[in-house]
Amino acid sequence: RVAVVGAGVSGLAATKCCLDEGLEPTCFEQSQDIGGLWRYTEHIEAGRPSLYSSVISNTSKEMSSFSDFPYPEEFPVFLPNALLLDYLRRYAEHFGLREHIRFRTTVVSIRRHPDFATTGQWNVVTEADGQQVSHVFDAVMVCSGNFSEPSLPLHCFPGIERFQGQYFHSRQYKHPDLFQGKRVLVVGMGNSGVDIAVEASRVASKVTICTGQGAWVLSRVFERGYPWDMVFNTRLMSLIRNNLPRPLSWALINYQMNQRFNHENYGLQPEKSYLVREPVLNDDLPSYILTGRITIKPGVKEFKENSVVFHDYPGEEPIDIVVFCTGYNVSFPFLEESVVKVENKHASLYKYVFPTHLQKHTLAVPGLIKSLGAIMPLTEMQSRWVTRVFKGLCQLPPQSVMEKEVNEKKKKQVQWFGLSFDEVLKTEWVVYMDTLASFIGAKPSVLRLLCRDPWLALTIFFGPCSPYQYRLGGPGHWEGARQAILTQWDRTLKPTRTRVPAGSSSSFPSLLAVVGFLLLLAAVIFGF
């Protein structure tokens, strides 16, 4: 019996993976419906993530799908939150997940059972309709996410107490109406910060983004108009990025990030460009800077009654509203602090999933990793691995080995507003997915496929590393995986080719046919 906390993206994947492995999941969801972060509500609900109405996914539908459940071909390539929620509902319906979810049920506490050292069991206390109930579970999957407790470090902003205007955390933002005719300052340059600044600039009299670090800005529309992640996250590109000497690797990333526009000319160049932080996905920011709708400034030095002073910048800037886009705390109020150690707002977990110090590895926390790629297939892969660890089919290394790896990753973190962003190269999407897939025996072998199914092998290696690749073989094998891979460009282009009849799905395969075998031989030399 497995307790799953939360029925968002991670919780649904965890519940489904438990069923696939013959386990008995019970998913506890404190709200009245599934969806987690992606279920928009007009009002902020305590303990739940809060979404603004205009949110669109940053990763394309083919790269964001669960590995055995493609999106409908008519869905747009990047999805408004309502359509993404629709997909999650279809997923839950298709795999019969709702019957395993207890809605309006809050997890109050999770504690080790008295005989935990022997059984690995957990005492789970839940509350529904004012009544608390105690359960015993053999394992627990914590899928509550980390977008519920906003981080608002006001002590880092001198003078904020005397500021007479309005200020709030981005979690409270829903619509841009409140910015009408106002002078707006957005503090922080993550995805939410830039989205809010772009929306505000359409109605505000002036919008300023302040950032002490800068950021890489990517567009959803990448090379030759293809979705960014279907070009960036390929096995070939991953191989190159991870096998080039470090200076050349940084140079390649700098080149790729600056292809669309020179970040330095726009005041966006990261302060230390050799430290690869999570890029911002936004299609409008560069043009809005060019047209004067948005201005980029350094970090805040201090606030005054009706203005702000920036570091190394002369004068004061009058402002009416401040939006703090300073991220979220990692918090598990129902767990003992000793179970999941949170330091510097970073949970110390082996492979970003398992606490290292427990006598029995029967508790996991899927979904806490930040990587330059889609979260859905990633958290699904984590759950596929976790459920096999629970069953004893996969073994974890000794505690000392796990702790050594966790500590090494801590040394390679970039601090920003107290939040920890792992270097992308250390948590590269393809590498991480392959690592977990190899644990469960689901990593595809390009060389083996080359002999048996050359076209599929070439598509897998040079094309997008779509989630269906991890259903070609091993546990959880899906008969439709091959067809899903070979038709991924059809589903990508179907919703955009609405004026003329669809021709060939992509010029990309023809390129593969020309250079495929030569590059694959080079890849073998690299040791792929």
Automatic annotation (TrEMBL):
The first-level EC class reads oxidoreductase
Q: Name one GO cellular component term.
A: endoplasmic reticulum membrane
In what way does this protein cross or attach to the membrane? Single-pass membrane protein
**Does the record's keyword annotation contain S-adenosyl-L-methionine?**
no
Q: Which residues span the membrane? A: 508-527
Catalysis: reaction(s): hypotaurine + NADPH + O2 + H(+) = taurine + NADP(+) + H2O; N,N-dimethylaniline + NADPH + O2 + H(+) = N,N-dimethylaniline N-oxide + NADP(+) + H2O; hypotaurine + NADH + O2 + H(+) = taurine + NAD(+) + H2O; trimethylamine + NADPH + O2 = trimethylamine N-oxide + NADP(+) + H2O
InterPro entries in alphabetical order: FAD/NAD-bd_sf (IPR036188), Flavin_mOase (IPR000960), Flavin_mOase-like (IPR020946), Flavin_mOase_1 (IPR002253), FMO-like (IPR050346)
Q: Which cofactor does it need?
A: FAD
Answer yes or no on keyword Oxidoreductase: yes
- Superkingdom field: Eukaryota
Major localization listed first in the record, in broad terms: endoplasmic reticulum
Q: Which UniProt keywords apply?
A: Endoplasmic reticulum, FAD, Flavoprotein, Membrane, Monooxygenase, NADP, Oxidoreductase, Transmembrane, Transmembrane helix
List the molecular function annotations (GO) for this entry.
Answer: flavin adenine dinucleotide binding; N,N-dimethylaniline monooxygenase activity; NADP binding; trimethylamine monooxygenase activity
What EC number(s) are associated with this protein in UniProt? 1.14.13.148, 1.14.13.8
Pfam family, any one: FMO-like
Task: Tell where it localizes.
Answer: Endoplasmic reticulum membrane
> What is the stated purpose of this protein?
Broad spectrum monooxygenase that catalyzes the oxygenation of a wide variety of nitrogen- and sulfur-containing compounds including xenobiotics. Catalyzes the S-oxygenation of hypotaurine to produce taurine, an organic osmolyte involved in cell volume regulation as well as a variety of cytoprotective and developmental processes.
Family classification: Belongs to the FMO family.
Q: What is this protein called?
A: Flavin-containing monooxygenase 1
